Fold this protein.
Amino acid sequence: MIPVNLVLLTGPSAAGKTFLQRQLTANAISCLDNDQEVMTRFFDLLPKAEGDKYRAHIGNEAVWRPARSLVDYDRIVRLHHRDWYLRNECPKNFVAVGWMYSRRDHRHQVNEAFRRVPNISLNTKIVRLIPDENVFVERYIERQDKAQAEAWNLIVAKGKSACIEHAKEMLRNYLAVDWQAPTDDTTFEDVKALDDALVIIQQHFGSVPVGQAVPE
């Protein structure tokens, strides 16, 4: 059996996952972007009106949950994880990035996808990026300001305090609703700082010994 090390990098929207993904890619670490490789494929299969509507709420599973019954969503998750793995020459170490890995059902389908790949033994670790509240609020507001969505502009019109409270509510909702701790033997770690997350990921891959910082 060939050992394959997988890190599921997750956390709330605006936690810094995309920025960390760029760092990982720059360090020649293979990264599967769940939004691009899985969710985009899912929305593309829907009738255009529904696909466009739900695509705008990609970070809110409660909004697009009804669309799961229109196609075989679980099969899509399995198929595109396995497809990415094979297209990328079966990396022995890789990171899958996305808030959906906070959910047990999504992680289960990932496990099922790789259980069907012959001759590999999957070693999975969840790294949950949870910045300090003040850092998260700053990142969340900056991200929403760039997106300029109509719903966000309505909050902005109420003043800075409304924006801050909305960001805090998004973090509370993620922790209370979106995050589902593993009930199997999958290990996970909470990480506040991006640099610490990078170290933990490289430790899981065996490229940095535990307790040693990443070399400059």
About this structure: Confidence is low (pLDDT under 50) at residues 209-216. The chain is about 50% helix and 15% strand. Strands lie at 2-10, 30-33, 93-97, 120-129, 187-191.
